[in-house]
């Protein structure tokens, strides 16, 4: 028998368990491993004991925030180190591990949890150390993410063997943010030196409940300019978005260059720069 840790966030509860099936049933559609699909209601394993396992060196999304669009499935790379007792059988037949992120006071009783669809792939560094990698899929199209969940989540690891004995370990934090979009349009083009340039745009962000983008009101946004031939933008002024996320301001034409809007982001929403719009000054 081989095992596969298949776990999922369903209304904030962890779907998890382990069971044995005859060898003839072992070759399923997922790399010939047997799926672990039966569940306990509260996400706990039936065995009282815990594995002699610790997690360390967790890195989620290469240390960056997880940014999720209005209707998106984001693949999030995770790496971690797992240290185990030399006596523990960590063969694929008997053992699996994987990462998850959660909201709440503890990994064992979260209010929300998102866990890897498949177990981590581990390579032995020694008789007691495994270096592992896995992928978390964060979906805005499901029932887990709500707009209020655009906060800092906690990261953790889960290890389980074939009899259902498991261990969980907390390992740091990871921000989960709503994706943002920003536009900029400078007119007229071309324009005479000394005349007025009007720069319009819009800041919007993902709504995880409607699965559409909506204007982000009352946010400070920088108008920036890059002289033609330069690689550096400098801030001209800072303005705020309207109730619909719209932006509009004016500047005086001086030299050829690119105008863009730049949003620094908030605790809930990712930073974004608009594509620069070139203006030819005559």
Please specify the SSE layout and strand pairing.
Elements: E1 4-5, E2 8-10, E3 13-15, E4 35-36, E5 53-60, E6 66-68, E7 73-84, E8 95-103, E9 112-115, E10 121-124, E11 129-139, E12 152-161, E13 166-178, E14 180-182, E15 185-187, E16 196-207, E17 212-215, E18 220-227, E19 234-240, E20 246-252, E21 257-263, E22 272-273, E23 277-279
Parallel strand pairs: 1-4, 6-13
Antiparallel strand pairs: 2-3, 5-7, 7-11, 8-9, 8-12, 10-11, 12-13, 14-16, 15-16, 16-17, 16-20, 18-19, 18-21, 21-22, 21-23
Structural description of this entry:
There is one protein chain. Strand 12 and strand 13 form a beta hairpin. The chain is built from no helices and 23 strands. The termini are far apart. It is elongated. It has a five-stranded mixed β-sheet, with no helix packed on it. Strands 14, 15, 16, 17 and 20 form a five-stranded antiparallel β-sheet that branches. Strands 18, 19, 21, 22 and 23 form a five-stranded antiparallel β-sheet that branches.
């Amino acid at each position: 028998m081989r095992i596969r840790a298949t776990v999922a966030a369903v209304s904030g509860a962890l779907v998890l368990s382990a069971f044995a099936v005859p060898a003839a049933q072992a070759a399923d559609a997922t790399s010939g491993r047997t799926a672990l699909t039966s569940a306990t209601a509260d996400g706990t394993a039936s065995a009282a004991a815990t594995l002699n396992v610790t997690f360390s060196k967790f890195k989620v999304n290469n240390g960056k925030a997880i940014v999720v669009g209005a209707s998106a499935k984001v693949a999030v790379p995770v790496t971690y180190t797992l240290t185990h007792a030399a006596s523990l059988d960590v063969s694929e037949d008997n053992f699996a591990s994987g990462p998850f992120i959660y909201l709440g006071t503890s990994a064992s009783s979260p209010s929300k949890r998102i866990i890897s669809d498949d177990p981590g792939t581990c390579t032995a560094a020694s008789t007691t150390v495994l270096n592992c990698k896995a992928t978390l899929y964060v979906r805005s199209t499901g029932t887990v993410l709500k707009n209020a969940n655009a906060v800092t989540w906690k990261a953790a690891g889960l290890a389980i063997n074939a009899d259902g004995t498991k261990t969980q370990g907390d390992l740091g934090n990871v921000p989960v943010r709503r994706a943002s979009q920003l536009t900029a349009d400078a007119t007229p083009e071309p324009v005479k030196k000394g005349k007025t340039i009007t720069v319009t745009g819009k800041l919007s962000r993902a709504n995880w409940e409607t699965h559409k983008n909506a204007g982000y009101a009352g946010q400070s946004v920088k108008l920036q300019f890059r002289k033609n031939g330069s690689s550096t933008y400098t801030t001209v002024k800072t303005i705020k978005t309207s109730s619909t996320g719209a932006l509009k301001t004016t500047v005086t034409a001086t030299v050829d260059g690119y105008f863009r809007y730049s949003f620094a982001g908030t605790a809930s929403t990712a930073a974004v720069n608009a594509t620069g719009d070139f203006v030819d000054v005559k």
